[in-house]
Amino acid sequence: MALGLGFAGAAMAGDLGAAYKLDTGQLASKGPSPELARTGQEPAPKQAELPIKVGFTPTAMNTHYDIVIAGAKQAIKDLGGESVIDLHIQAPTSQSGIGQQMNIVETWVQRNYDVITMATANDQAMMPMYERAAKKGIPVFMFNMPTAMSTNPFFVSNVGYDQHEAGRLIGLYVKETYGDTPTNLVILEGLPGVHNTQRLTGFKEGLGDTPNVKIIASQPAGWVRSEGQSVMENILTAHPDDIDVVWGMYDEMALGALAAIKGRGAEGIDIIGYDNTPDAYDAIKRGDMHVTVDTAAKEMGYNLIMAVHDYAVKGQMVDKVINSEVVVWDGGNIDAFDTDNYVFVE
């Protein structure tokens, strides 16, 4: 479809909500101010003996969490290195490996780690682990978790970004870029759960009442590139000539869709992602992808470790929710993105 990219500004001013325009014209937001009160069941701040032993467990390893880890390591370097924070990283083998993650956390609790940090696909299933950690005085920090998921009474802080708001920014982008032209949209979802729900409901809120944009297929693709490609191949078979735009709710799925589209020799289909991974950055630079939303993964890891240090070393209270700014990047501005935001810098 390849319509002009960017925002007209005045046309969407009434729809921005908590979002705003940067000086570059990019759409950005930290989301509405979160309001989560402390429950009194969180372990108190402490001044632990150095180095503190910190467990880090994501839902599974992928590009996003590689970048989060780069940010965590950057913070550790700035704080003085391994003599201050001894970081232990362990992840389930897949996004659905909640049993493995429970075993990881239980081991850390038994070994009296100073702090546990985690992103989990099933907050409710992990509740007994949170409680066991809290009863032993081990603070638990969440990261990359939708605020709506942060309902357990034991966690100290949720560090990340507003996933509903990031989805809403993409919806606003689609509304502004394609809303004046009849457009058939395909959505590649992740696995069922709060992450998926938050991103999708945010997108639909941003899209709002836009009759010209019709969602002709919305199917799960498991957050991974290979499934994104296979699901997109099936959708192309069902809709060989009437797809204008594809949104992958994680860049890896969007890149899988891109591979399927190129494999079929299909043309005129715009690809939208979510997360701004290095491969998505490269695809936008080449003109193969059109837009993504950066979710500040490195900053997330950095903020996480700084909050852990404040709480468990300095003995200081930290905010219950720590959100970073999310920013939309497209072919018109991607050259300005600093790729040091992907890696640990010595």
From TrEMBL:
SUPFAM superfamilies: Periplasmic binding protein-like I. The keyword Mitochondrion does not apply. CDD domains: PBP1_ABC_sugar_binding-like. Belongs to the bacterial solute-binding protein 2 family. It is found in: Cell envelope. The keyword Chaperone does not apply. One of its GO terms (cellular component) is cell envelope. GO terms for molecular function: carbohydrate binding. This is Periplasmic binding protein domain-containing protein. Coiled coil: none annotated. Residues 55-313 form the Periplasmic binding protein domain. It holds the Pfam family Peripla_BP_4.
